[in-house]
Amino acid sequence: MPTLIKTRNKFPFRLSSLFVILTPALIFPGLASNVQAREFFDPAFLRSVGMTNSSSELPDLTAYETKNAQAPGEYRVDILLNYEYRETTHIRFVEAVGKSDATGSNVKKVNLVPCFSLSQLSGYGLRLNAFSELKENNNGCVNVDTIPDFHSEFNFNTQQLVISIPQAALSPIAQGFIPNEEFDDGINALIANYRFSGAKDFETEDEYYSINLNTGLNIGPWRLRNLSVGNKNQGEDSDWESVYLYAQRNIIPLKSTLLIGESSSLSSIFDGVPFTGLQLATDPEMLPDSLRGYAPVVRGIAKTNARVVIKQNGYQVYQAFVAPGAFEITDMYPTGGNGDLYVTVEESDGSKQNFIVPFATLPLMLREGQFEYELTSGQYRSYDNGTDKVPFTQATLSYGLLSNTTIYGGIQGASKYQSMAAGLGHNLGDFGAVSTDVTQAWSKRKDDDKTSGQSWRIRYGKNILETGTNITIAGYRYSTRGFSTLTEVLDTYNDNGNSSGFRSVRNRTNLTVNQNLGDGLGSLSMSGIFEDYWDGGRRNNSFGIGYNGGYRSINYYLGYSYSRYSWKNNNTNRQTQDDHLFAFNISIPLSEWLPGTYVSYQLNNSNPGSTDQYVSIGGSALENNSLSWDVQQGYSNRESASGGVRTSYRSSVGIVDTGYSYDKHRKSLNYGFSGGLLAHANGITFGQEMSDTAALVKAPGLSYVRLDNDQTISTDFRGYAILPYLTPYKRTSIMLDSTTLADNMELPVTSQKVVPTRGAIARANFEGNIGRRAFIVLQTASGSAVPYGATVISTANPNAQASLVSDGGMVYLSGLKETGELAVQWGKNASQQCKATYSLTDVTGQISQTTAVCR
């Protein structure tokens, strides 16, 4: 039985010589011994030009006679459906004998056609129910000729398979649609992310530490996740608490996610409520990008070297050390829930800034016929362990109607609280989108009478392309005196007796606007929150405005923020606290003199009459800019000089941060490191901190090869690496940088595509040729050269890519052992196959040269 040699990927180097011979033969058909009406290459030409011995058999080149034709086998190809990329996969190609050509010649064409299964065609959107005659033959291939106007063309040079199917034969497919069959639940693995930070005050000898551990376990579609935070201050007991612990899995047919454990209810209709229990909710990210309707970014201004602490639902979820000036935090762990972020900026002089980052979005405007739902049931989970764990249930539903309208509503129920909400959202076209809703609540706080009330809310969003204005969130809420949220009521049921002094919000207005001022003119941003409370006369107002601009490579920023907190003592005298902060900074690159280096100036002015100025120089160094550094010197009109130095080094296994700062109040050393760890079936791999969805690169033997996706990441000594960030339900290409391969490595495939589900650790497998590279001249037992065009493969790796023999019997091979055996074939008969034993033991050079006899 003839041997089927699997042929994969591109090998232009090995085909180049063959093309040189075939091209003129096809252009000048008179060179062929039998002139026919169609173009034909006679293998005897090889003998006439001395490329095969006159006594040797001619190679069988039938597979190469027609355009783009090759030997049958399995090829790794890019699938293009109606010229739109769908996937990269291995497709089996088989020979199909076609009819005689258009010239009337009786010579039959041998074509290479793809073998498709019914499931593959269904995944490409073919309506199988419309073609009942479609069946798979004994080889598992569908006769696609029964599909009208179905065409496929394999371009061997680009390794692309273009499939053309009439739209009438396809199911309606949204742009960017990915079949469910491509969703990858990933590998089973233990996951650990860690982030440690610490500081030492040399003036007081105080030290404090913080550690975040985000751990998990993946088994099939199930994900177990836990976020724990620990803090230790000098002279105090350590504080360790679990922010959440839950198990989660996807339910793809329902486009939903099931969660069991600790999390927060969704906040699109009601405020988010932390719970321990069960939640089943729609996961919009399973939809393609074109059908999807947010993660908070925390921005602020530090007056000095400061510590930023962020809390959500009472839990500390983030800590960072920032330099004076404007800062932006984008790398928070996902907290498994929603709710406003309470930010505290602890300055080096002991003063604190407090502000709130709203974490809410407009109600999701749904397309006609689409719906989203949530069902949450469990016990209330307060950050205060003394608060009663009251059972509650929440259910919400949103549905897209005609005329760009969405209706939504929900209910909440507990023994101490009941509420129902209903709302309407409408797309106003050029005028943006608006929603309005009302919530009716009945509640009983601890040690209080039953009350009831309503809360009315209106929200608006608009992106004005003509003016470059983006109104991200504009909202107003009015609540009657008797209205309370579920969280506000349940928080009164605690063991410390602190159920009095509760104040409910009466009015709250929030606004976020971004304005693009045009090419070269920068952008303007503005945000504000204004709220007042029933009883007690408490009011909280905050407002900020900022301008970002640039000239050539110079960037600058102007910002102003204002906060006013007011309250009444004993409901009589009103007390007011006002905070003003003005900031300016400018950054100038020094790349013409010092590559990767910049100098910057910062000015902060705050009440009462405090002015701080800083000059810093910083930049990046080392390969791939893996080291960033900054040296700063400052002066304040309230105190003596201040300054500091910071470094951050990023490697494949994590990030290390160090810093030293000093001012009038303290001299302190800050340090920290972060990273990730995966324990999987093939061992343990260290890497950078991972997002919830990540990838494991498996390339056994390909040590220290960089990833094109992130040049600071490379495979470890075993050939494994972690790509720490992937987007769930989105196709991602994972690529290795072939320029970083060692001399004894070759990588036929440098890119793999994955579509991970939420929380998955997708695996990207790469198979490299590791070993010697050599030019081997193959001779028959009679001493003649093996025929031109023969295929050669190492018997030690029968699934590897086949190579073609060039003139004089020479073939290039890679991934060879010191000694081994080669299988050679130039036809289907036994007399057209042989095996050769080679030895490279005594041969030196990066690319060796030797001779082997084929018997």
Give a quick summary of the entry.
This protein has four helices and 52 strands. It has a 24-stranded antiparallel beta barrel. A five-stranded mixed beta sheet has the order 3-2-1-5-4, with no helix packed on it. It has a four-stranded antiparallel beta sheet with strand order 14-13-16-17, with no helix packed on it. The N terminus is likely disordered.
Write the layout of secondary structure elements.
Elements lengths: L11 H16 L16 H5 L24 E9 L2 E17 L7 E7 L3 H6 L27 E5 L4 E5 L24 E13 L5 E13 L2 E12 L5 E13 L4 E9 L9 E9 L15 E5 L3 E7 L2 E8 L2 E5 L11 E6 L5 E6 L13 E10 L10 E10 L4 E10 L2 E11 L5 E12 L5 E15 L4 E11 L6 H5 L14 E12 L6 E11 L5 E13 L2 E16 L3 E17 L7 E10 L3 E12 L5 E10 L2 E13 L2 E9 L4 E14 L2 E5 L6 E5 L7 E2 L2 E5 L5 E4 L8 E4 L9 E2 L4 E4 L6 E5 L3 E2 L1 E9 L10 E4 L8 E2 L5 E7 L2 E7 L7 E7 L7 E8 L1
Parallel strand pairs: 1-5, 37-44, 46-52
Antiparallel strand pairs: 1-2, 2-3, 4-5, 6-7, 6-35, 7-8, 8-9, 9-10, 10-11, 11-18, 12-15, 13-14, 13-16, 16-17, 18-19, 19-20, 20-21, 21-22, 22-23, 23-24, 24-25, 25-26, 26-27, 27-28, 28-29, 29-30, 30-31, 31-32, 32-33, 33-34, 34-35, 35-36, 37-40, 38-39, 41-43, 42-45, 46-49, 47-48, 47-50, 50-51
